[in-house]
Design goal:
Distance between the termini: 38 Å
CATH topology: Four Helix Bundle (Hemerythrin (Met), subunit A)
Number of domains: 1
Strand content: under 5%
Radius of gyration: 15 Å
Largest sheet: none
Number of strands: 0
Protein name: DinB family protein
């Protein structure tokens, strides 16, 4: 089951491997990391429909952190409001957020490998998969508006 979960997470963050896809486009880089890769800080900071790509990206990164802490049984009070406070970002800040998302994703996958899939852990992983896929779709729609 872990391999199937990691395959779907990989598609969400990196895009599909090869020529087939479970739910995204089959082209390389159609995952979250590829979608945000070429976006400038200015575009990531552009207010589109009351939000920004930077905010969606930061929020997705924050959600991974919360899920990792829950799986590790680290009791940290979550502040969902802080995850949406990012609006305007400099190039350095934007690069830091993009790198942070990639790092959190990689650590999450490593944690899956190390964890027993209890019902709580499985729910956290599946919730993160669904949540990240939602924000991939939201960001892709915002990119179309740029």
């Amino acid at each position: 089951m872990k391999e199937e979960i990691k395959e779907l997470l990989n598609e969400t963050f990196n895009g599909p491997d090869g020529t087939r896809s479970w739910y995204t486009e089959t082209k390389k880089g159609s995952g979250l990391l590829g979608t945000i890769e070429g976006i400038s800080a200015g575009d990531a900071s552009t207010n589109l429909r009351g939000t920004t790509i930077a905010a969606h990206t930061h929020h997705t990164m924050y959600h991974i952190t919360v899920c990792k802490n829950a799986i590790k049984k680290i009791d940290v009070k979550s502040d969902w409001g802080i995850s949406w406070k990012i609006k305007d970002v400099s190039e350095d800040e934007w690069n830091e957020i993009k790198k942070g998302l990639e790092d959190e994703y990689k650590e999450f996958v490593d944690l899956i490998d190390q964890s027993e899939l209890s019902s709580v852990t499985l729910r956290m992983i599946l919730a993160n998969l669904a949540h990240s896929a939602y924000h991939l779709g939201a960001i892709r729609q915002l990119v179309k508006e740029l």
